[in-house]
From TrEMBL:
Residues 17-196 form the 3-hydroxyacyl-CoA dehydrogenase NAD binding domain. Belongs to the 3-hydroxyacyl-CoA dehydrogenase family. In the central section; belongs to the 3-hydroxyacyl-CoA dehydrogenase family. Residues 199-288 form the 3-hydroxyacyl-CoA dehydrogenase C-terminal domain. Signal peptide: none annotated. It comes from the Bacteria. This is Enoyl-CoA hydratase / 3-hydroxyacyl-CoA dehydrogenase / 3-hydroxybutyryl-CoA epimerase.
Length: 301
């Protein structure tokens, strides 16, 4: 059955080489997923070669782990490693049909990256963004071909979470949308098409949950009580552990974006924004299990 709003899959363009911009945690997880599921060359880039090399080393390590678990055999593991390359030269993206960016959530940075990539790729190439709450239309605003831009929003941990939000802007053409839907299917993910609105669907829901949990703590409700109160919701992780998983900078950005768009409906968290620099929220016990919120860091006494 064709997903709601999806154009004819015959319109999809082939994805024979993938470019990934950013060499952080999300980008590395994408690289592994694309390698494993599409088995096509994947090239990863960042500002400096050191970060790129570190990402490649990490992805090789993850492939070794998959081999150790018997999920891929030795030949496949070697082939996947051979398909992966790193560069700091965007001209190496020239023959990519699909480029996805996962850099820091800053609009001008993402706009400039896409404009630079457009100089190198063919007119057919799709430019996808993993932004969690910026406007996808605005990210493509400096392009000659904004119809090739689509949101492709994954969830952490990428290997495990089954969903991708495919974000359609007013300019996204059917070939681009179809390519995104078919690519999601080839990655073995469920795709839903969403409108280009703050937080799309999932982060809109999460912003309410995480923002409310942070607000309760900031207002003096003990951390343990917020965790206990959230328990009947049956979440796989409590809100604070989830915040730690997505990363505090991303979490703070999601809350800020929602507060800016709908100030009467969403809380921003100053404490979280301040903490994001240090990136520590949860105190862990000796086994690494979450023990409680770091009250000192939150300046709650
Ligand atoms: N990275 C990679 N793989 C992971 C992982 C991680 N951080 N955590 C768990 N896994 C893998 C495990 O290796 C295991 O794989 P295997 O079966 O191949 O060995 C599998 O997940 C299950 O692991 P566990 O048995 O430890 O599973 P749990 O039952 O504890 O579940 C979980 C772990 C799937 C992460 C679960 O806790 C969960 O679903 N948490 C909620 C995650 C969530 O809501 N993510 C969305 C965040 S929002 C977001 O990312 C958007 C952004 O824009 C903010």
């Amino acid at each position: 059955k064709r997903p709601a709003g999806a154009p004819d899959k015959e319109l999809a363009k082939p994805v024979r080489k993938v470019g990934i911009v950013g060499a952080g945690l999300m980008a590395s997880q994408f690289a592994l997923l694309f390698l494993r599921r599409l088995q096509v060359p994947v090239v990863i880039t960042d500002l400096d070669q050191g970060r790129v090399d570190k990402a490649i080393e990490g992805i090789h390590g993850e492939i070794d782990k998959l081999q150790g678990k018997g999920r891929v055999d030795a030949d496949t593991a070697n082939r996947l490693k051979g398909l992966l390359s790193g560069t700091v030269d965007k001209s190496d993206f020239a023959d990519c049909d699909w480029v996805i960016e996962a850099v820091f959530e800053e609009l001008t940075l993402k706009q400039d990256i896409f404009a630079e990539i457009e100089e190198h790729v063919s007119d057919e190439a799709v430019l996808a963004t993993n932004t969690s709450s910026l406007s996808v239309e605005q990210i493509g605003a400096k392009l000659k071909h904004p119809e090739r831009v689509v949101g492709f929003h994954f969830f952490n941990p990428v290997a495990v979470m089954p969903l991708v939000e495919v974000v359609k802007t007013p300019h996204t053409d059917d070939a681009t949308l179809s390519t995104a839907m078919v690519t999601a299917k080839n990655l073995k993910k469920n795709a839903v098409i969403t409108r280009d609105t703050p937080g799309f669907v999932v982060n809109r829901v999460l912003a309410k949950l995480l923002g409310t949990a942070m607000h309760a703590v900031e207002q003096g409700t003990p951390f343990e009580d917020v965790v206990e109160a959230a328990r009947p919701l049956g979440l796989p992780m409590d809100p604070f552990v989830l915040l730690d998983l997505v990363g505090l900078r991303v979490g703070a950005h999601v809350l800020d974006t929602h507060h800016a768009a709908f100030p009467e409906r969403f809380h921003a968290s100053e404490a979280l924004t301040a903490l994001a620099e240090e990136n520590v929220l949860i105190e862990k016990d000796s086994k690494g299990e979450p023990k409680g919120i770091d009250k000192q860091a939150l300046k709650i006494v």
